Amino acid sequence: MNITLDSKVTAKLSVQADGEEFTVGDPVSGTFIRVPYEAVHIIHLLDGVKTLNEISEQLRNEQMDADVLDFVETLHELELIYSIDGKVFLIPPDEKPVSKSLSAAASVIFHPISQVCYVLFFLLSIGMIAGIPELRPVYKDFWAAEATGLSLLLLFFISWPLTILHELGHYLAALRLGIPVKFNLSLRFYWLVVEADMTGLWSVSKQKRYLPYAAGMAVDSFLLFLSLAGQMAAAGFALKLLKMITLLLVMRFAWQLLIFLRTDIYFLIMNKLNMPSLHGYAKEIMTGYMRKKDRGESLKEELSVKEMSYVKSFASCYLIGGIIAAGLLFLYSLPGLYVLLKQTMVQLSVYSLNSWLFWDGIITLAILSVNAVIWSIGAASKYKGSKTGTLPISSNEAT
Fold first, then answer.
1. Lower Cβ count inside 10 Å, N or C end of the chain?
2. SS3 254
3. Beta bridge partners of 18
4. Which residues are bridge partners to 35 per DSSP?
5. CA torsion angle for 366, 368, 370, 373 (degrees, to 10)?
6. Which residues of 242-256 are buried (b: 16+ CB within 10 A; e: fewer)?
7. 259 compared with 291, residue with greater pLDDT
């Protein structure tokens, strides 16, 4: 649709101050952009009553130099214009009413008092692990059963519920703010992850974004405390299961420290630094370096000196993290998988329905196959996302 200076345009966008700029966008479509104050002023004037020519005249009277028509055309290309001359372009989908029980649960689980408790649970867990040697997780805790296949089966049916509870934390914390959350499988390097897409958080203030980003770790802190406390009263197989849960949760917290993989901690840092495209800029620098193109010079025109230092620091983390990830893949993951497959083939060679080794090999092969299928789904989702492209500013995906 052609837009002229005689057009009457309506923009119904959320506006949030972020540092010296503003984040504006549509929470429904999940499209957000960073703009200066002048652009926000224009958005407020796009009420569907004034023509673009009248808005331009008002800006000139206010001694504000801005190309209103060009800006509106850009918003329209990004699908951020509600209507033009009465023709509506942004029609929100039919929203299903939020369950009252879910809303009540979210209010209780993330009540300010509950938030303090999660911090205490985390600190108590650290104290228990540091002070009680028997509670410290070790690698052998992965094997809760003597048979490899049964241990892998237990690992599968324990790790996924833990992941679901982690993502449920993100979902409920975002629900308190009325922010929709979309989940999907993806990859970070070669690791399979579940992403909670909370792009709509750009429609709320910076301070309110912290809790949804940290909510998954809050749930993990509570679960870790329960598993450690349970070990002190458990014995036998129950103790082995709790040790496995403890190890998985401790590894989950260790994973969060790998900020180059855009973990929950990365998004907390990104929000604190007020740099939604931190990862994207760092990746551009790395890509430019590998292609022998100095992207850093052009970025200096877009970013302040302080922001550029943040990007370079994160690019260093990205490089070091990539080297470590490659080392883990080729020195541990692939050799370990090879040994496991070799052992499984030996077990299957028994080919006796009366042999527990044969059935243990069947279980191992089944678990590996299911994991391979799930990993392939995540890889396909990652590939599809890279082909689709990125939003004007990075989307929020907590893992």
1. N
2. helix
3. 21
4. 22
5. -140
6. bbbbbbbbbebbebb
7. 259
Rounded distance, CA 170 to CA 120, Å?
Answer: 19
Partnered with residue 183 across adjacent β-strands are 196
Does the structure show a pLDDT above 50 at 394? no
Q: Sign of torsion, CA 255 259 264 265?
A: positive
26 DSSP 8-state letter: E
**What are the structure tokens assigned to 352, written together?**
């006796």
**pLDDT for res 391:** 38
Q: Could you report how far apart the first and last alpha carbons of the chain are, in Å?
A: 40
| Residue 47, strand partner residues | 10
Q: Is residue 205 within 8 Å of residue 243, measured between CB atoms?
A: no
Q: Which residues pair with 21 in a beta bridge?
A: 18
Q: What is the pLDDT of residue 95?
A: 55
| Average pLDDT rounded to a whole number, residues 59-72 | 90
Given a contact cutoff of 8 angstroms between Cβ atoms, the answer to whether 56 and 9 are in contact is no
- Residue-wise pLDDT tens digits, 261-298: 999 999 999 999 988 888 888 888 777 665 655 555 66
Of residues 7, 228, 264, the one with CA closest to residue 135: 228
Helix 278-290 vs helix 305-328: crossing angle, to nearest 10: 70
One-letter amino acid of 50: K
Q: Is 302 exposed, middle or buried (0-12, 13-18, 19+ CB in 10 A)?
A: exposed
* Whole-Å CA distances, 152 to 28, 273, 340, 349, 357: 40, 41, 11, 20, 14
Q: In what order do the strands lie in the sheet with 21-26?
A: 14-18, 21-26, 31-35
pTM score of the predicted model: 0.87
User: Alpha helices of the chain — where are they, by DSSP H?
Assistant: 37-45, 52-61, 68-77, 100-109, 112-131, 148-175, 206-231, 236-256, 264-273, 278-290, 295-302, 305-328, 334-349, 356-388
User: Which of 44-53, 84-93, 388-397 is the most confident on average?
Assistant: 44-53
pLDDT digits (tens, 9 = 90+) for 152-172: 999 999 999 999 999 999 999
Q: Identify whether the C-beta of residue 197 lies closer than 8 Å to the C-beta of residue 212.
A: no
Burial of 48 (0-12, 13-18, 19+ CB in 10 A): middle
* Alpha-carbon torsion, ordered 238, 243, 249, 253, to 10 deg: 160
